[in-house]
Design brief:
The complex is a heterodimer. Chain A contains 15 helices and eleven strands. Chain A is globular, with a radius of gyration of 21 Å. By secondary structure, chain A is an alpha/beta fold. In chain A, the strands form three sheets. In chain A, strands 2-1-7-8-9 form a five-stranded parallel sheet. Chain A has a four-stranded parallel sheet with strand order 4-3-5-6, with helices on both faces. The N terminus and C terminus of chain A are likely disordered. In chain A, about 40% of the residues lie in helices and about 20% in strands. Chain A folds into two domains: about 140 residues, HypD, alpha/beta domain 1 (Rossmann fold); about 150 residues, Rossmann fold, CATH 3.40.50.11740. In chain A, strand 1, helix 3 and strand 2 form a beta-alpha-beta unit. Chain B starts with a strand and ends with a helix. Chain B is globular and about 35 Å long. Chain B has a five-stranded antiparallel sheet. By secondary structure, chain B is of the alpha+beta class. Classes of the chains: A alpha/beta, B alpha+beta. Chains A and B meet through helix 3, helix 6, helix 7, helix 9 and helix 12 of A and strand 5, helix 1 and helix 2 of B. The complex binds iron/sulfur cluster (SF4). Iron/sulfur cluster binds next to helix 14 of chain A.
Chain lengths: ~375, ~90
């Protein structure tokens, strides 16, 4: 109980884990996918798996946007960044993600002008200050960051900036969930739904999961208690033979999402017919691109990057980690060839990546507890 | 980048209704509040900030809980705060 004891509501956590255990039907095993990388982080940080009965296992989902960007897109970004007069801007999380010829950091050290920014709006400032250069923002993220990119493009247009564009890699969570549910080797009994994505899209886009796939989903906050409570809600639905979308995170997430954010996304961006995800392959309509109306701000139209498909390095098992087929520590290079300092795969780069979260927080405890848990599950 | 960080609105820029000064763990920075157009925050309100944009209004208790969570995760939050400090939005 050490890790939950460190948390201020240790008593509540203990009571919740007891109630979770009571809800498990004898002889039945439950696998729940936490969709969001932020949840994965909390789970390892607080050792939440130690507080679940052996019958309940957690599967880490594809909700780390840095982790699912395929290498080919990193290479395309590099291609754009290397053009004359280009300044590329990127969130810090993206800087160490390996492309087939190194990361943004490596390219920067070799003289390519790639600058880390906190916000897409910082890129606008760089564009204004460098009128003779082309500033390209490497836009990544799920619906939590998409409206920010869209609003930035709208602002650039309103200002009449002619030297700013985005390389759009925004992805959407719902098609990815559908792809996971359609995949034959994934067995999931329910979902811990993403919190911050849902502040934008609301709860209704998940309705197809109970309706078409018969699995419950509970939108969840990020604290240890939130996640335990969400697991409790999932188990209660299963016990009561109910199957619906529930919102555990009502203190932040409104059922209808943020209509202003949705409207600005829709004005500037449109769904892309096809996008490749690392680990999940190509998923139709799972990403966004710039609408014709804002073509002047679309780096793909301006710089026509090659768009080559690049295989992941052979040693890399990110794909299996991202679909929950293996746990991070089961990857052959985990902690040896692949560490946060020298990542081979993107799951080791972002703090939301399952491998990085496990590397930073999970290892010590795993050695002590996991073998026993594995045995009791077998 | 995926972290939502809570900030307290200090003032709305008189010349720019879409820009607010917020206080995040003692760091004062401008952020964009255009995505909250339907219910614009007022000084004293708390917002959840993603990449320089307020994405939702939250109450003070939620802000405190979110801060507890963030300070608990250590380096990732320090990096995010350092990035926020280095940013200049207008
Ligand atoms: S250890 Fe590295 S290569 Fe293996 S799955 Fe994790 S990030 Fe990918």
């Amino acid at each position: 109980m050490r890790f939950v004891d460190e948390y201020r509501d240790a008593g509540t956590a203990r009571a919740l884990s007891a109630r979770i255990a009571e809800l498990c039907e004898p002889g039945r095993a439950y696998a729940f996918m936490e969709v969001c990388g932020g949840h994965t982080h909390t789970i390892y940080k607080h050792g939440l798996e130690d507080h679940l009965p052996p019958a309940v296992s957690l599967v880490h989902g594809p909700g780390c946007p840095v982790c699912v960007i395929p290498m080919g897109r990193v290479d395309d970004a590099m291609h754009i960044a290397r053009q004359d007069d280009v300044i590329m801007t990127s969130f810090g999380d993206m800087m160490r993600v390996p492309g087939s010829h190194g990361s943004f950091f490596d390219a920067n050290a070799e003289g390519t002008d790639i600058r880390m920014v906190y916000s897409p709006l910082d890129s606008l400032k760089i564009a204004r200050a460098n009128p003779d250069r082309q500033v390209v923002f490497m836009a990544i993220g799920f619906e939590t960051t998409t409206p920010s990119t869209a609003l930035t493009v709208r602002r650039a247009a309103a200002e009449g900036l002619t030297n700013f564009s985005i390389f759009c890699n925004h992805i959407t969570i719902v098609p990815a969930l559908r792809a996971i549910l359609d995949s034959p080797d994934v067995r999931i009994d329910g979902f811990v739904g993403p919190g911050h994505v849902s502040t934008v899209i609301g709860c209704r886009p998940y309705d197809f999961i109970p309706r078409d796939y018969g699995r419950p989903l509970v939108v969840s906050g990020f604290e240890p208690l939130d996640i335990l409570q969400s697991i409790h809600k999932l188990l209660r639905q299963l016990r009561d033979r109910r199957c619906e979308v529930e919102n555990q995170y009502t203190r932040v997430v409104a059922a209808e999402g943020n209509p202003v954010a949705l409207a600005v996304i829709d004005e500037v961006l449109e769904p892309r017919p096809d996008f490749e995800w690392r680990g999940l392959g190509r998923i139709p309509w799972s990403a966004m691109r710039v609408r014709e109306r804002y073509a002047a701000f679309d780096a793909e139209r301006i710089f026509a990057p090659p768009g080559a498909r690049v295989e992941d390095p052979k040693a890399c098992q990110c794909g299996e980690v991202l679909t929950g087929v293996i746990k991070p520590w089961e990857c052959k290079v985990f902690g040896t060839g692949c560490t946060p300092e020298t990542p081979i795969g993107a799951c080791m780069v972002s703090p939301e990546g399952a491998c990085a979260a496990y590397y930073n927080f999970g290892r010590a405890r795993h050695r002590a507890t996991e073998p026993a848990k594995e045995m009791s599950r077998a | 980048m995926c972290l939502g960080i809570p900030g307290e609105v200090v003032e709305i820029r008189p010349d720019r209704p879409d820009i607010a000064t917020v206080d995040v763990s003692g760091v004062r920075r401008a952020i964009n509040i255009g995505l909250l157009d339907e219910h614009p925050p007022r000084p004293g309100d708390w917002v959840l900030i993603h990449v320089g944009f307020a994405l939702s209004l939250i109450d003070e208790a939620e802000a405190r809980a979110a801060l507890d969570f963030l300070t608990g995760i250590g380096r990732a939050y320090d990096d995010e705060l350092a990035a926020l400090r280095a940013s200049s939005i207008d």
